[in-house]
Amino acid sequence: MARRTAAASQPDAHARSAANDAASRIAAWQRRAGRHGLPWQQTRDPYRIWLSEIMLQQTQAATVVPYYERFLDLFPTVVDLADAAQDAVLHAWAGLGYYARARNLHRCAQVLRDAHGGRFPATAEELARLPGIGPSTAAAIAAFAYGERAPILDGNVRRVLSRYFAVEGDPTAARTLQRLWAHAQALIDAAPAALDMAAYTQGQMDLGATVCTRTRPDCARCPLEADCRARIEGRQDALPSPRARRAQPLRHCWMLIAECKGRVLLERRPDAGIWGGLWSLPQFEDTGALQAACAGLATAGSPQAMAAIDHVFTHFRLRIQPCLLKLPGTVLVPAEPGRAWVPIGTLDAYGMPAPVARLLAGLYPGKLPPR
Ligand code: SF4
Questions:
Q1: Fewer CB within 10 Å, N or C, the chain?
Q2: How far is the CA of 232 from the centre of ligand 1 (A)?
Q3: Where would I find the Helix-hairpin-helix DNA-binding motif class domain in this sequence (predicted)?
C-alpha cells in the first residue's frame, strides 16, 4: 500500500513541528464548523460507509445523497448487493459516471459474501485488498467505522496538505504522492492518543471541500491558517503545482441507432473495457463495419449521419458519430447474442453510458431521465 511504503520519505523537522497539533485543530474545527447532516455520517456501519466513500470518489456529496439512499433501499445489506444482478446494480448507478466503480462495488460485495461471511474486515490494510478499495478509501472506512488511526489522501486532502506543507510537484506523480502520504502519516503520529479519528477524517474532507478550495481558499476560516506555509508565503494559487500536461488522444467510433416497430437495437458492452456491462448502441470502428451491419438489418434504406458528439475520458477523448437507420419493415430481424430490440418506452430501465443516454433522450424526448 502506498501509505505504508511512504515511510521511506520522512517529512523534515519543520514539517513535523508544524504538524504537532494540526490534527486536533482539524478535528475540533470539524465538530464546530464542518458538515454534519450527510446521511452516511449518522452510522458506523462499514457497509454504508463503504458505499458512500465509493460514490463520493469523483462525485460531489449533494449528487451522491439520492443515489446513496436509493442503493440502500434496493440493497439494504452487502449480501443483498452481492446477490443482485449486475444489470440491476449498474442501472441503480446510472448517471453517477465512472462505471468501473459500480462493477467493482458489485464484485467487492461478492468477495465479502463468499470469502468474509458477509462482514467487512476491521483494518485499513485488509480493506485495501478488496476490489475497488484503494488505500485512502480503506483508511476512511477504517477511521469512520472502527476509529483506526489511518491517514487518508483523497483529492481534497492532497490539496490541503500540498498547501499546508508547501509540497511542490504534480500532486498525482508517484514521488509527490509519497511525500504527501508521509505528511499525512506524520500528522496522525504527532496527534494525541485521544484524537477523534472520525472527526479528524471528516474534517480533512470538509476542509478541502468547503474552505481550502481549488480557487480562492478561505484561509480566514481555516484551522491551519496560523502555520500554513502556502498562506504565510502567499502561494495558495501556486499550490498544489499544476499537473503535468499529458496529450489527450482523440479516438473515433461510429454508433448505430437502428429503429424498428417502436424499438431500438441496444448492445451490452463487454465487461472489460469502457462502459463494461452497460447497455449501449452497437458500436463500430469504421464506417465500413457500420455499413455491413446495416446491410444485415435492412434490404433498403441507408443510415443517416447525425451530429457527432465528443465524450471526454480520463486519458482520451472519444468522438462518436451516431447514424440513424429507420427500418421500414414490420418484422424485427432477430438480434445477435448480446443485443436486444428494446421498446423505446422502456429505455429508462437500462443502465447506459451518459453520452448514449443523452443521445437517445434527444431523439426520444421523455423516454429517458434527464442527465
Ligand atoms: S490556510 Fe488557506 S491555503 Fe492553508 S490549508 Fe487553510 S485554507 Fe488552505
A1: C
A2: 9
A3: 125-144
